[in-house]
């Protein structure tokens, strides 16, 4: 899922930042970004690179026919496991753990039950972002409170490029049209921001001037943002389009949007069409409507709740939690259904009638989804079974 995403960009308001401040506070509590000396990130010595001391030795591989039948639970100490991050392919998962003073990133084979250490760092790992083609991994670490480090790895964990960025918080978006580039927004404590284009292959960090943060790619050289006004408190704002050749000049892409995202090659927008009802609309670069649907809306504090969702570019399936009825978040007890909307078929299918609204990331073929606040559960989309992915480490 894009995310990550963390993975996890909230809508930005230049007039008020309560939602963003709450998110950052949680991140700070989780990652414990206290100032500490930087340890150069990298792979451990060869003797440690295959498994962590906390991961049991690789079991004998069962016959291939058995491997493909049943996922193998990850055996790990609960105190060390942090969360699954997502999929690299239909059997390979990324997960984070803490072993002593080391934050560690592992590759897990879901059907063999084996873990391979890709990266280890004394600095807290804040987030992981695979490239759109799943051929690279970006690791966001926080060596200091006011500094971030982005480390780019190949799938063997080899270092390709790293860059330090002064910031209190970062947001980023990987270019789905050119995987060498990312758009990065660096915020300071006062929520002033600077936008950069990171080119990992050319090893360049280029600042750009844009009137808005939280940019998202919608073409090789095209970026989108919402045009929030400093002196206005509004639930929606227009989407504006930048070209790298003419930035900061911008053109109007779409008006009156509450929230947007770029999913695959489509622009998804969420807007209010009438009281207690939200419209999800998917358009292409030529502004042709590919698919749309409406759902009940849930109000929360100063805006609306956007339930968790995931998009599978390969199958064009958009999976989203949908409330059974509209209401206020502090009073709503109606639960959520998980619905699969297919953009190509223009169809919808209710996968589960009653589930908690929690994060979701699905495999490239759409057969399985990680689910839960640590993505610690596995949904089999075909059988509708939900299983736990973790079990206590065997002594």
Describe this structure in words.
With 395 residues, the chain is mainly β. It contains 2 helices and 33 strands. A 4-stranded antiparallel β-sheet has the order 2-3-4-5, with no helix packed on it. Strand 6 and strand 7 (136-144) form a beta hairpin. It is globular.
Main sheet record? 4 strands, antiparallel
The number of E-state strands comes to: 33
Distance N to C terminus: 35 Å
Label the overall shape: globular
Helix content: under 10%
What's the pLDDT, averaged over the residues? Answer: 85
Low-confidence stretches: 1-67
Strand content: over 45%
**Rounded Rg:** 21 Å
Secondary structural class: mainly beta
Strands, helices and their partners?
Layout: H1 18-31, H2 64-67, E1 74-75, E2 81-87, E3 92-99, E4 102-109, E5 114-121, E6 125-130, E7 136-144, E8 147-154, E9 159-166, E10 169-174, E11 181-187, E12 193-199, E13 204-208, E14 216-217, E15 222-226, E16 237-243, E17 250-257, E18 259-263, E19 266-274, E20 277-283, E21 289-296, E22 298-300, E23 303-305, E24 309-312, E25 317-323, E26 327-328, E27 336-342, E28 347-355, E29 360-362, E30 368-371, E31 377-380, E32 385-388, E33 390-391
Parallel strand pairs: 1-33, 22-26
Antiparallel strand pairs: 2-3, 3-4, 4-5, 6-7, 7-8, 8-9, 10-11, 11-12, 12-13, 14-15, 15-16, 16-17, 18-19, 19-20, 20-21, 22-23, 24-25, 25-27, 27-28, 29-30, 30-31, 31-32
Concise overview:
5% of the residues lie in helices and 49% in strands. It contains two helices and 33 strands. It starts with 17 loop residues before the first helix and ends with a strand.
